[in-house]
Amino acid sequence: MYEVNRSVFILIPLEPFWHWLNGLPDSDLSDLSLEDLQEDANSYLIDACQNADEVWAAIENRIEVLFAAELADWCEDESQWPDLHPDIFREWFAVELSSIVTDLSEAPLQREAFAPLEGM
Questions:
Q1: Cα dihedral angle (103, 9, 84, 72), rounded to 10 degrees?
Q2: pLDDT attached to residue 120
């Protein structure tokens, strides 16, 4: 086991996000539920933080980028997006925090550049 020099937070979609997603043109989410999205929500690593306040500060500094990333996973047409305002972000996502990340794997960490999902 190794403690890594990162903290993590998970963005959990809430009802307003789900309503937006279902309202997208050509949206067919018949095989998906809000609970499905919540059970496999996106996690984000950030620089190591000492406490939850530091994690929140890191989130606050990136709210527009995070909001855009979450929306772009489902819709690349920014004209379909809401305003990327922090208040809307807070209505659309719950956040789970952890200031300590422990790596249980023996394999080295690898990094890959972010690429939007295709075919959504």
A1: 40
A2: 39
Instruction: Give the span between the Cα atoms of 6 and 112, in whole angstroms.
Output: 16
The pTM of the full predicted model, rounded to 2 decimals, is 0.84
Residue whose structure tokens are 């772009």: 72
Q: Dump the DSSP string for 24-80.
A: STT---TT--HHHHHHT-EEEEEE--SSHHHHHHHHHTTHHHHHHHHHHTT---GGG
For residues 51 and 64, what is the distance between their CA atoms, to the nearest angstrom?
A: 22
**Pair of tokens at residue 47:** 């620089």
Kindly state the average pLDDT of the residues 35-44. Answer: 95
Which position has the token pair 């903290």? 7
Query: What average pLDDT is seen over the chain?
Result: 90
Q: List, edge to edge, every strand of the sheet that includes 93-98.
A: 42-47, 6-13, 93-98
The CA distance from 69 to 111, in Å, is 18
Q: Where are the domains of the chain?
A: 2-102
Q: Report the C-alpha gap between 39 and 57 in whole angstroms.
A: 25
pLDDT for 45 equals: 93
